[in-house]
Structures are given as C-alpha cells and as structure tokens.
Amino acid sequence: METFIQHARGLTARIAERREEQETYGRLAAGQSPLALFITCSDSRVVPSLITGARPGELFELRTAGNAVPVYREDMAACAEAATIEYAMRVLRVADIVVCGHSHCGAVGAKARGEDLTGAPAVRDWLAQALSDELPEDPEPTVSAAVQQHVRQQVDRLRAYPCVRERLAAGEVNLHGWFYEVHTGLVAAHHPASDLFLPL
Questions:
Q1: Does the keyword Cell membrane apply (predicted)?
Q2: Of the candidates 79, 99, 76, 97, which has an alpha carbon nearest to the alpha carbon of residue 88?
Q3: Which of 42, 100, 148, 193 could serve as a FRET partner for 66 with CA atoms 20 to 30 Å apart?
Q4: Strand 96-102 relative to strand 36-41: parallel, antiparallel, unpaired?
C-alpha cells in the first residue's frame, strides 16, 4: 500500500511540472467524453490503460468478476452494471463497446470446471447468476476456449439492452469482443464472419 500512497502523493507535483498534463487534467475537470466503454474483469492482471494505451478520460470502465454482463431484464433499475451501460450509451454516447476477457480467468475457470465455492457464497451466487451454464469444459490453465466463448455470450447479451439496441440500429455504436493473454500480452479480436479470435 505504501507504494500506492507515495505515487498518489507525488501526482500533483508531476502534473504541475508538465504543462501538457495540466491542460489534460484541466479539461477533465470540465467533464468527460470517453471514446469507448471497456467491459473487463476485476482481475488485477488486467489493466485497460496498459492494454489500450488510453489516456485519462478516454475509457469508461465496467469491471466485474469474469467481465460478466447481466442478462437484461425489465426490472434492472437498481443494477449497477445496467446503469453503467445505460450511462455510457445515453449520456456519454460512446462510439464503441469492448468486452475484454482474459486468459487464466478465475471466474470463468471456476464456472467451466464446476469448482466448489461454498466457502465464497457471494462469488458462487454471482457466477451462477452472471455466467452461462453453457461454457465448454476447458482443462487448460489458460481456459482460453471457455473465456472466448464467454466473451461471445457477453457481446450477445449487450444486444438485448434497449440503450445498446437503439444505438446499434442507428449505426452509432460498434461492439467488439477481445481476448487478452496475460502471459504474452497478445490481444485478439473476435471476427463474427469466421467466429474466430485473431490477433489485432
């Protein structure tokens, strides 16, 4: 924690030393206009700004265990994930949504392998609710096949959200499925025509 504290203490000084940084942070104080909604896992090994090179203010992030998008329901008024998606679509009007899964995903791996999570009931219940029972069995430590199938499912789930559906119909937003390999840094994108994940 001390490393984080020292970095946070020095942030003001670093900004003050660089005129470009001052202008950037000054603009951010006036509001945000991110380029994309980036939906990814809570996993500490997944760092959206490192993967994309995004600067402050460029990504609107939604992080959940297993980068899960809940199935859309009419009674989702109090759902944090649905609220984040709706805000990105109707208020920020981002032009792209990226669902980024990753190798070695504990959430997807636990679901695909049917692991006993009785000691972590909140995790167990979230995975039962948010992740599909139709994930393929995947004995590999990377769980790449299961994660990639999971990403496809989350992109499909997004299409059921009225705020996404409206913007898709108007040609105002694009959906992307990505797979990030933690151990190599490779990022692959889903190509619907071939149904394959190919390197960017």
A1: no
A2: 97
A3: 193
A4: parallel
Please say whether the beta carbons of 161 and 81 come within 8 A: no
DSSP 78: T
Strand order in the sheet with 196-199: 59-64, 36-41, 96-102, 174-180, 187-191, 196-199
What count of other Cβ atoms lies within 10 Å of the Cβ of residue 104?
17
Please say whether the beta carbons of 133 and 79 come within 8 A. Answer: no
Interstrand relation of 196-199 and 187-191 (parallel, antiparallel or unpaired): antiparallel
Q: Return the pLDDT at 14.
A: 67
Instruction: Give pLDDT tens digits for 145-176.
Output: 999 999 999 999 999 999 999 999 999 999 99
pLDDT value at residue 132: 83
pTM of the entire predicted model: 0.89
Residue with tokens 């409206």: 166
Return the amino acid letter for 84: T
What are 99-115's pLDDT values in tens digits? 999 999 999 999 888 89
Angstrom distances, CA of residue 155 to CA of 14, 97, 148, 160: 39, 9, 11, 9
- What's the length of the chain? 200
